[in-house]
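Sample entry (259 residues):
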Amino acid sequence: MKKIFKVAAVAAASTALCAGIGIATGCSAGYNGKYEGSYSYTNKYGATYGMRVEVTVENNIITNVRDITNTDLSKQGGIVKDWTTGKSSYKESGVAWTLVSDGWSKYFSKNYARLLYKGSETGDSSLEADSLYYKVIGEDDAVTYEKWDTDKKPVVPIEQTKGGYGWTDSSEQNWTDHEAWLLQQYVGLSVSEVLDIKVFYNSGYSVDANGNLVVDSSVAGEPYSKDYNDAFVQSGLLISGSTQGSGRLILAVQDALTK
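Predicted structure, serialized as tokens:
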């Protein structure tokens, strides 16, 4: 009921809103049309996380939000890491963004991330295709694969640790299962309502105990957790357990609405 009253009030004042917002967007009889927006950042592993959306607006009211991430790679860019050389380079386009972080089936944590492989991904036909293996490199640089066994525990999956990478397979699935629901939550909201929501994200800069500036590009642009994003949490425009992914989405929507 609260949203209905808000929508009615905004519709009645659409001309006034257009005067404030439409100058920059070229709207005439209200904020109408389809707008594309995006938000992304690259972490220290060279993975570019981001969202690109198409937002449809009628009379200053959002009527549809569509996820178009990776549908047109020419509109995306980011850091691409060559895992053979370990070097990274920036590409203006052709970079497939990752919607959410990979689950623990791809990352392990002791002191650094370690990869898990399905047997079918190793190129070794003698291995069970759907079973998980970890790579072992011998002193003679010979590569072999050992089956991951929960009894032997050669490494500990993130699902069972308190630190490390911190994004589990179940977390990844949580986003996949609820993204459509989250996109629908924007329908019926006014342009001004969404633009007024403050979303805080890490600048990548901090100061150490000695007052020296510390730059950490691996976290620059990453939305803060719900404990440090009260206004965003109060908006309800997020999937519980997927604050960062939800943050990337709303920042992409806000980018579209300021075009």
